[in-house]
Amino acid sequence: MSNPKLILASASPRRRELIARLGIEPTGIAAADIDESPLKGELPRPYAARMAREKALAVPGGDAHVLAGDTVVALGRRILPKAEDEASARGCLELLSGRRHTVLSAIALKTPAGKLSERLSETVVRFKRLSAEEIDAYIAGGEWHGKAGGYAIQGSAEGLIAWIAGSHSGVMGLPLFETRALLKAAGFPLG
Length: 191
What we know:
This protein is of the alpha/beta class. The chain has one domain (6-185): Maf protein. 31% of the residues lie in helices and 24% in strands. It is built from 6 helices and 7 strands; from the N terminus they run βαβαββαββαβαα. Strands 1, 2, 3, 4, 5, 6 and 7 form a 7-stranded mixed sheet that branches. It is elongated, with a radius of gyration of 17 Å.
């Protein structure tokens, strides 16, 4: 494949930073404009996969590959929201305090020929038991804004996480192992 093109179907600076770790500079960035509301009774895994798939399909690719992703923080069967205000961030952190939760990072790749491939990364994360002061300090820092589950592992929240089992890059928003495998399987050249 000569001069391959890749459109990143995300406006997330974290995803752009992560894809660069694979030696890829996207030829375009196009955030997909889709309804991200979970369907009634939809469980976290199918929801994450559906979101990545719908984002990839919503972005016109032309002669480029389109890579889309979605990250979901789940507490059991419950999908935690992207925190858009302090109350939702605080609610998420109080729920996650001292408990294990799952971060599902789904990716979908649409080839120029229209073929769609998908992968899902699953990571288990456990926060330490958080004091009210720790939650207040994290909220005051503002890193939670727009983040699934109300936290960003690449920021100061990493100091509140007792352990993770799985993909650190997946928790950030783009699981690099799965992304690399998906691109290679589609014939996209990687170093």
